[in-house]
Amino acid sequence: MLALALIIFVDVSGRYLFSMPLLGATEIIKNSVVSITFLQIPLAIYRGGMIRTTLIYDMVGPNWIMILGVAIVVLLVPGLASWLPGRML
Question: What is this structure's pTM?
């Protein structure tokens, strides 16, 4: 994490002070953030540290929870199925 902060600092300083940004800094930061996120997911699942919000589930009964779950799947699956092929081009 300190290395990423240093890369950002050098990139920003170079860009504004010398008009010469650090080449490849944007790509390094983008890929590192994604890597850090995906590498932390297994540990969070193993420790039971995933965050979940139950605000709506606390307000409705068990029948509505199942209806909401089905509605989410019915809306998300076709949406993702139509959106992803366009993103893969």
Answer: 0.51
